[in-house]
Design goal:
The chain is an all-alpha fold. The chain contains 9 helices and no strands. It has one domain. The longest helix has 28 residues.
Length: about 200
C-alpha cells in the first residue's frame, strides 16, 4: 500500500479545494473569483514542488488510503467548523488526538507488526511529531478555524510540501529540485489570494 511522497503531496493538495467546495453549502462560506484562482495556484504550486512527473497510480490500495485520509481530514475540518468552533482549544485537541490514537492503534494491530528501534533520531522525530505536529500544528489549525472560514484555514496545507522540502534540505542534506522555488512562490501567491481580505 505504499505510495510515493510526491503522489501523497499531490493528493493532499485536494484537501483545501474539497474543503472549500463543501464549506459553501454546509457552512455558508462564499469565496470570490480571486480566491478560487488562489486555490488553483496553490494546487499548481504543490504539483511543481512535488514534481508532477512523479505522480504514480501504480498502487491502487495506497491511492485509496491516501484519498481516504484526505477525505477524513476535510471531513474533520468541516465538522469542527460546523459544530465545535467555540470548543476550548485544549479540550478539542485532546478529543481529536485521543480518537486518532485509538484509530491508529486499531489499524496498526490489524495491518502491521508493531516494532520500533529506539535511536536518538527516532526519539527526536517522535518528539517533533508529538509536540510540533500533533499538539502545535493541530492547535493552530483549530485556532484558525475558530477565527475564520474553514476553506481559508485549509489553504495553509498548500505550504506543507514546500516547507517540507526546505526542512529536508536544511536538516537532511537533500537536494532541492529546480522547480521547488517557483512552485513554492506560486503556492504562497495562491494562499495569499485565498486569505487576503477584500
Amino acid at each position: 500500500t505504499e505510495i510515493r511522497g510526491a503522489t501523497m503531496a499531490l493528493i493532499g493538495a485536494l484537501h483545501p479545494i474539497a474543503t472549500a467546495l463543501v464549506a459553501g453549502p454546509l457552512l455558508g462560506e462564499r469565496f470570490r473569483g480571486r480566491q478560487w484562482i488562489g486555490f488553483l495556484l496553490g494546487a499548481g504550486g504543490v504539483a511543481l514542488v512535488a514534481g508532477i512527473g512523479a505522480f504514480d497510480l501504480g498502487r491502487p490500495a495506497g491511492i485509496a488510503w491516501a484519498v481516504g485520509s484526505i477525505a477524513a481530514l476535510a471531513g474533520g475540518t468541516l465538522y469542527h467548523a460546523r459544530f465545535c468552533r467555540d470548543a476550548p482549544l485544549i479540550g478539542a485537541n485532546t478529543v481529536q488526538l485521543a480518537s486518532a490514537a485509538v484509530t491508529a492503534w486499531a489499524f496498526t494491530w490489524a495491518f502491521e507488526t508493531p516494532h520500533a528501534v529506539w535511536t536518538p533520531g527516532m526519539v527526536a522525530a517522535l518528539a517533533y511529531l508529538t509536540f510540533g505536529v500533533s499538539l502545535g500544528a493541530m492547535a493552530l489549525l483549530l485556532y484558525m478555524l475558530r477565527q475564520g472560514e474553514a476553506g481559508r484555514a485549509a489553504s495553509n496545507f498548500y505550504l506543507v510540501p514546500g516547507v517540507t522540502a526546505l526542512l529536508a534540505w536544511a536538516f537532511l542534506g537533500e537536494d532541492l529540485p529546480a522547480a521547488m522555488w517557483p512552485g513554492f512562490a506560486l503556492t504562497m501567491a495562491g494562499v495569499w489570494l485565498i486569505r487576503r481580505r477584500a
